[in-house]
Amino acid sequence: MLKRSDAVVLGAGIVGICVALHLQKRGRSVVLLDRRGAAEETSFGNAGLIQREGVYPYGFPHDFGALLRYGLNRTIDAYYHPSALPRLAPFLWKYWMYSRPTRHRQVAHRYSKLIEHCVTEHEALAALSGAAGVFRRAGWLKVFRTERERDKRFAEAERIHREFGINHGFLDARMLQDMEPHIAPVLTGALHYTDPVSVDDPHGLANIYLRHFERLGGQFVQGNAHSLEADGSGWRVRTAHGPLTAGSAVIALGPWADVLTRALGYDLPLAVKRGYHMHYRPAGEAKLHHPILDTERGYFLAPMRQGIRLTTGAEFARRDAIKTPVQLGRAEPIARDLFPLAERLDTEAWMGARPCTPDMLPVIGKAPRHERLWFAFGHAHHGLTLGAVTGRLLAEMITGEATFVDPAPYSAERFGR
Ligand SMILES: Cc1cc2nc3c(=O)[nH]c(=O)nc-3n(C[C@H](O)[C@H](O)[C@H](O)COP(=O)(O)OP(=O)(O)OC[C@H]3O[C@@H](n4cnc5c(N)ncnc54)[C@H](O)[C@@H]3O)c2cc1C
Fold this sequence. Notes:
Elements (H helix, E strand, L loop, with lengths): L4 E6 L3 H12 L4 E5 L14 E2 L13 H9 L5 E3 L4 H14 L2 H15 L2 H11 L11 E5 L2 H18 L3 E5 H7 L9 E5 L3 E2 L3 H14 L3 E4 L6 E3 L2 E6 L2 E10 L5 H7 L7 E12 L9 E3 L4 E6 L2 E6 L1 E3 L9 H13 L2 E4 L5 E7 L6 E4 L6 E5 L5 H17 L18
Parallel strand pairs: 1-2, 1-12, 2-9, 4-17, 5-14, 12-21
Antiparallel strand pairs: 3-8, 5-7, 6-7, 10-11, 11-12, 13-16, 13-18, 13-19, 14-15, 15-16, 20-21
Helix pairs in contact: 1-8, 1-11, 5-11
This protein binds flavin-adenine dinucleotide.
């Protein structure tokens, strides 16, 4: 039987875990609830990057050539289910509008206020949890096949450095070959982002934070978030240990947040971009030292605890439609030509669904029409990156402390009440 707690956090992905840990650390009694184990959904299988350079969230391309390629549905970086388009159209239209260069720049200025703390906030949580050595500090590489793309991206990186102070190094083909000797010599160079850090096991990191939450007295239980209902001045939810009442509730359900927010009467413009991964044994003595993005081809390779992880870009589909790892099938032969990959190590492709908003900003803050109800979702491509930042910001809001970042741009009220 559970006692009444100060707060219940619904969803134990990286975002929910960080919110719960930050609240517990501030002396609140917290129950973290999930229908599965911790970080077994989207937070399980991402590429492991904490993207300090990611001040411009991934926008919808506005050049005609890219649109044509995406329209033909033959690229690796984006793929869509034609049957999902009518339902996705309103979201895609808004996403397109927010991605126009002037608006995208405004979005980046709001987003950068969160991104600038992503490494320091993870480092603080890792130090607190006794896992200070968990981050790989080698940055990551955006590699290029053509001089045209390389020069365009070098110029863009210079502009972003001037605007936001994001550090990088330019590597020519020879320097890149020295850094990554097992990559095929087919590249013209790379951008080396030096500020980001990465982990070789995002699921493991989430569980390190969870264990510290439990050491501080927090409880992790199984239950269905959809059983949430108002109870006097707080909230009640059914768990595997019986009913739980809590003073406050936090919805941190990632790609499933809209199921509960809709039931509570909110009409938020949320959608998902699905993505896949597969692990490979590196062939022979081959070693990959950095996570790399094959920019023109549109897939990502990262050295992980389980092997070399190939992750794919955006699949526009209904969240619950069956897996269609088309992009993985397209990327695999190209990745094999770039880096010596041996056999697949997973029996089937893993799939996750990035929880997205059309303006590319997460939703962090108070529910507009309910007392003591809080939102923390919509982190899209950067839920690992921003989990620790969101955890601190929301915990400060809930406990009434001065916040370290102005939360106004991330309020759900920007989509109406
Ligand atoms: C291929 C891929 C690569 C990525 N690479 C990166 C990267 O390198 N860096 C980065 O920062 N981000 C990356 N991302 C994005 C990142 O993984 C997500 O933004 C992040 O995991 C979202 O975390 P979350 O806690 O919001 O959601 P989730 O991890 O999905 O957590 C939501 C939780 O809610 C639970 N839940 C749902 N419904 C219920 C219910 N009814 N009752 C109880 N519990 C429920 C689920 O079981 C789940 O545990 C990547 C994503 C993909 C798909």
